[in-house]
Model the fold of this input.
Amino acid sequence: MIGERWTAYWFVLPGTFLLLAILGFPAIASIVDSFGSVGSGGFGSAYLALLSDQRFLTASFNTALFVVCVVTLHIILGLAVALLLNADIPFKWFFRVVALLPWTVPDVIGGLIFRFMLDPLSGGVNAIAFRLQLMQGPYDWLGDPGWAMFSVIMAETWRGYPYPMLILLAGLQAIPKEQYEAAAIDGAGRWAIFTNVTLPNLMPMVLIAVVLDAIWQCRLFGMIFGMTNGGPGDATQNLSLFVYRQYFQFFETTYAASAAVVLAAVLLAVAIPYIRSTLREKS
Amino acid sequence: MFTRKNKNLAMGAAVLMASVSMGVQTVSAEDITITYSDWQLAQEGWGNSLRTAIAEFEELNPGITVATEPVQLGQRDVRFTTAIRAGQGPDVFALDANPVRQYISAGWVLDLTPFAEAQDPAFFDDFYETSLAPVTVDGAVYGVPMNTVAMGLVYNQAMFEAAGITEPATSWEEFSAHAEALTDTSAGQWATTLVLAPAGFDLRAPSIFHSFGASFLTEDWSASALDTPEMQAAFSYVVDMIQSGVVPPGVTQVDANGARRLLANGQIAMTIGTTWTIPEVSTMNPDLDGWNTLRIAPLPTDGGQEISPHTTLYQKSIFINANTEHPEASWALVDFLTQRAQMERWFDDNNMLSSRRSVNESYGPIQESPFASVVSEEIQHGTFLPLIPEWPRILDSFRQNLQDAVTGTKTAEQALADAHAETNEILGN
Done:
């Protein structure tokens, strides 16, 4: 019946309006703002300025490097921990809680914790290395551009791995036991079972974990803000921090909006495989 | 004998007489609440002084309640600008000089000239001309200056004496020699540190460049002046000093508070600071006995020459939000907080100098203070950082390039050349 069909639309209407107001309005406002003029330039000049802004290009490179490294490490570490937690071991619930703990730490706090640990004068890392006679004097980990980026990647690897780990653990638990039993009857070893049964079954979940984690890491702000504030120089400045600075420190709203739109477009491109796979599953 | 009723009457009369004699403007209004936000509310000493002053204000203005909103310095502009853009925000708030021109050009603060002139045509005569400059655009005054101080060299007299140094350096060459004598890394002691993190960089590092006779921008603030020989000499000096090992490792993460903590812990012997450094450091480590151990001297200059300006000025001013629904009550609070009596209390409590000439030049405790007298004298040799909307971006570009030179990512020459090019690009040249 046509009337019944329209009733359904009436039910979703309030939710749709709410969603548009919360998500749509800021998004549209940012896009409109991003096409404003910067300096003496005209329509869309902010985007042209971004292309020649070395700070923006460095922030883009830093973001890409950070995301690739962190997501790769998250998947490796997350899969390893998920496999351990999926095994039949005593006190499994306890280890699951412990494995989740880093995820409960807010990212800014995580950044500050690592900053204190790596402090050259009072940090624990230098104190241990000094006691083990691995170094002669205090080393400024976050004052060295290479070590600073490495440290930020390690810190976020620790803090964020439980998220992909949970997705992969759910995937592992969904693999039918019969497949493992059949492989065992066929005489497959542990490695053969892992590569021929576990991994193929887990790939859709790996894809979901990679896409969602990549989106999360592209937007990461608090960890880097708390740990290095993008420094030294702009060695660890990512796109989120770049946008924050433009908007709140330099009051360059149009420029910040254009950089944010570029970041959103990249995130959308990253999300496409996930959206396609979700739609495929539904169809 | 006074009865309780008589006592209350006497107190009320005393308050009224005090109000009249101090020229306090009281506002009779219906019960209204205005909000006041200030990063100093978030700090114990400063916050207590402000709360005491506000309690007095409420007593003098029975119809007005002031709700205080502490804000962290690092989050101040984020909070204010987001709220003001949304038509909200505190009625009255404090800013330092750096972001003032952005607030004025964006129309976020009220022109206070009509309020001041209605109260007293000579309202602004007592304020230093220098201190009115950051808050004045085209003859309209948008904020009332509260505190103005100049940066100087804060040093630990006991550590100087232990190293055989009798007087602070007057030239940067002498400063380098002192720095070597004061550094003993095996004892965990270094000569000094620089603030290279964003919080506090604006006041401290630029002071060194000013003391070499260098400027960041041309006189009309339209182009970069980072290619001058003075700036090149200053930039190289700073990078060489850091790389020579007289500053503790971790300098790129040191902010203003971090520098004060190093001084409080006796890990460094001197840092760039001002009058507020003394109470702050003393609170951090009471064992240091900062009021008797620390001293302030003018910053060294290039070759010990007389260079003016050779230091950077800090200023806190009070503003009224353009969105306020209570401009009269807000003005009453602004006026009250910046009156002479409050300025004197501000010095007593926090060792902070006033933006009012009459306070600095005639208030006894300021005249007698070994710290205030030096800083008061230095105000005449100080300058504000360029008051243009592009300044925060220019300063951050400079800071990042300086960090690149310090960490060896770029040579000092390359870093300065990049900062020069970026500055001109930001200014549209």
Q: What stands out?
A: The first strand of chain B starts at residue 32 and ends at 38.
